[in-house]
Amino acid sequence: MVNEMKLVKGSPAKILFALIMTTQVNLSYADVQAGATIAQKGTGSSAACMQCHGANGEGQAAAGFPRLAGQNKDYLVKQLNDFKAKLRKNPLMAPIANSLSTTQINDVADYYSSLPAWKAGSSPAQATSAPMSRGAQLAQQGDWDKGMPACFACHGVNGTGIPPHFPSIAGQNATYIANQLNAWKDGSRINDPEGLMKAVADKLSADDISAVSTYLANPK
Amino acid sequence: MNRFVNRLTKNGKFHPMWIVLAVVGVLIVASIVFIPARYEAAKEPAQKNFVAINKTPAVTNLPEPDAGQPDPKQLSVSTQPTHFTPPSESDMPKGEMGDMIKLGRNIFVHTQVYAKNLVGNGLNCVNCHLDAGRKADSAPLWAAYVSFPAYRSKNHKVNSFEDRLAGCFRFSMNGTPPAYNSKEMLALTSYSYWLATGAPTGKTLAGRGYPKLDNPPQPPDTQRGAKVFAQNCAICHGADGMGTKVNGQYAFPPLWGNDSYNAGAGMHKVKNAAAFIKANMPLGKGNSLSIQEAWDVAQFVDSHDRPPDPRTKK
Fold first, then answer.
1. Is A146 near chain B, with CB under 8 Å?
2. Phi, psi angle pair for B210, to nearest 5°
3. Which of A59, B38, B47, B217 could bond to A67 as cystine, CB 3.0-4.6 Å?
4. Do A81 and B44 touch (CB under 8 A)?
5. How far apart are CA A192 and CA A201, in angstroms?
6. Complex ipTM value
7. What is the pTM of this model?
């Protein structure tokens, strides 16, 4: 407001400054807008993201297509680049990622990270003597007798993610989580930094994977 | 803005301001066209580097899926619960004692929330005592609890368990120890006491402290340590060692600087840091670094500035 008042009286330098500021705000808005267009309509050479990832980026639980809404931007950019570089293998995503330019990857990641994240409890889990499900235990405390840290140790309070490297996993559908844990375990997914996920997945039994993925779909 | 334009036109004469406005207009059009292009061009190589950096560890994983994993012999040592096992969380007593134990656990895990006024840095107790003070080889509370009272060369006297906790607050937390009859002290002692349920006193329990590390083949080296740090630690602790924050709280702790442990802390001794790192870091990949790497990276971490030792103010 103060700036606007001064503008009226107007020194050219101030007008110039204000106009450039406005333009830049519009530019970052344009990134999200451009991303929204790719998400909803595709690029001409690739399908619209929403066909598989849902109208609002909520994913498709039954098919195991992951939730993208509210995911941190750096993580999304890295995954698309990894699909492109064949560091992450997926027959559906590879051709789509290949068709996207660096700008388009940034735009679409901007768009999905701008959407509302899954709503998790905001306060950290407190000490409780209530019996805990195996899934909740693995997510909140880990199982150190097997050398496993808690999921939330790296994926943040209640699994909401620690940007830039650690994605949000709260509210992610169980099929997707289980698929990824199995992929790390059998070596078909290898793009985790420092092999951190491989180290954990190797120690998870089939029952553990089922328990933790079910829990993460709706952590309380 | 309108008033400004009106003033110009009402004047009826050419005003030099028009030139300025025209130039500004051209600049804006140019900036709309060129700034995004330049921005994207600048982004391009950065993105390529990003992929390239991440390519290295992933590709080295390819031939040996188990690279970086502890060898089977070490695995059996570190994962078999040959050590004392503290009671499970679900066995926490009910009633007032249970509440005090729970408060202790909360202070221990969320120190920044439950004992903020006693802490002078960004750390939580659980940063060095993993798994809420339960994990063997990560200075577990159950082993410490049954080891006091004891004489300590650090302060040349017989210390109570409360004295030991106070030391953690003074040095590792760079803060103020809770008063000896305070709720915080009672809560932390209660939690430790409960974790030690059934543990023998006066015996050094397996898994106490950090496992003593053999001397490295070569003297610890900061330069080699910097490389180990960049490859294994920076992803969580930051390339600058300042940790990673989410919503103003450290999600990964800072390893040096104002928000880290002070120069009087046990972790400021390279041998302790090396022992902790070897057994416990990176999280979930304990014992994956070599003895040499653990010493080198500990030397690197402890070579940085941090708050002074309150005993000497150096």
1. yes
2. -115, 140
3. A59
4. no
5. 11
6. 0.82
7. 0.78
